[in-house]
C-alpha cells in the first residue's frame, strides 16, 4: 500500500533541490489545482499488468517512468479519477503498453521512450502527475522478478457449467483436490492449476500450443500400450482463467473429450520456452491425472434395513466432490403387528422410488461419502 509524506516537508525539499524526485507522494494543491496518485507505490511481477490510479481537479499529464530508466510514457487524462493499466510485458509496443481501465484520456498515450528489450526489467521506476506543466504529485512503481512454481491437479463435477463463472473467485470456490494419484472419474472436468507469475500481460489471448509467446500446455498419455501412438493434445482449446491476485493459471479440460478413455493416465506439462523474452532457458511445471470409471457404492447389503432413531450407511465414490448423487429408498412401513419401528428398503441408486439427494462435500475426504437415513427427517443427508 502507498503512503504519503508530510506536505510541508515535501515542498521544502523541492525548493532546496528541484532535481530530486521524491519516492513518496504528496496530495498538495499547486497553483490552485490538485492531482494525486491514489497509491503512490504500486508493484507487480515482470510480465504482469500494473494499475495506476490518479485523481485530478482538471486535465493533467501522467508521466510513467523516465528517460533515465530507459522507459517513459505520457498519458493525458481529464479531470476526475482515471485508472491506467501499464502492461509490463508489452513495454516495447507503443500501441499496447498503457491502456485505459477507468475514466477518460485525451488522445492516446505517448511512448516517449519505449523499452528496447521487450518486457520491463525488474526495478523501481519513477512516476509523476503534472497540471499545466507544474508537478503536483510523485510516486513510483516496482517491477518484481517473476517465477514459475508448481502445477496441481484439481477437479470439477461433470455437470459444472463453467460458462456461468463470472469470476475466478467462483471457480476457486468450486474446484476440489483429487486423491494423491490424481484420480478423476470419466466425464468429470480436469482442472490444471499452475502457480506462475508474470503472465498477466498476455495470457488471456495467447495460444497455448507454443506458437504465441513460446508458452504451451501439453497433455500426453503416459501409459499407452506397446506399439501404439499415445494420445496427445495441447491446452489451447481449454477454458482458461487467470487469477491475478494469486498468480495462478487455471485450465479446464473435459475428460469425456479429446479421445480420453477410462484407464488412461496423462502427464500435463506447462512450459515457458526459451524463446520467451522473460526467461533465459525453458521453465516447466508438471502434474498428472488418471481416468477411472464413474462409480458409487454403498457399504450395505440386504434388502431391508431396520432404522432405530438414526442409521448411517457408509459409501464410496470416484466422482468429484460437489457431485449430486441420487440415492433411492422406499417410504417407511410397519413391519407387522406390534412392531412400530419403520424400515427402509434400499433398492438401488437409480431405482424408481423416492429420491434423496446427496451432495459430496469437499469437507469429506475424496472418495468417501456418508449417507444418513434419519427417522424423522425423510432421508436426511450427513455431509
Short description:
By secondary structure, this protein is mainly β. The protein is 4% helix and 45% strand.
Beta-strand level of the residues, as a percent range? 35-45%
As residue ranges, the low-confidence spans are: 1-27, 331-336, 339-355, 362-366, 373-383
Helix content: under 10%
Q: Tally the beta strands.
A: 29
The structural class is mainly beta
Strand order of the largest sheet: 3-11-10-5-6-9
List the SSEs and their pairings.
Elements: H1 7-16, E1 29-30, E2 33-37, E3 41-45, E4 49-56, E5 60-66, E6 71-77, E7 80-87, E8 98-102, E9 110-113, E10 123-131, E11 134-144, E12 148-156, H2 168-174, E13 176-177, E14 183-185, E15 189-196, E16 215-221, E17 232-234, E18 239-243, E19 248-254, E20 265-272, E21 283-292, E22 296-298, E23 304-306, E24 310-317, E25 324-329, E26 333-334, E27 342-345, E28 354-359, E29 368-374
Parallel strand pairs: 3-11, 14-21
Antiparallel strand pairs: 1-2, 2-4, 4-7, 5-6, 5-10, 6-9, 7-8, 10-11, 12-13, 12-15, 15-19, 16-17, 16-20, 18-19, 20-21, 22-24, 23-27, 24-29, 25-28, 26-27
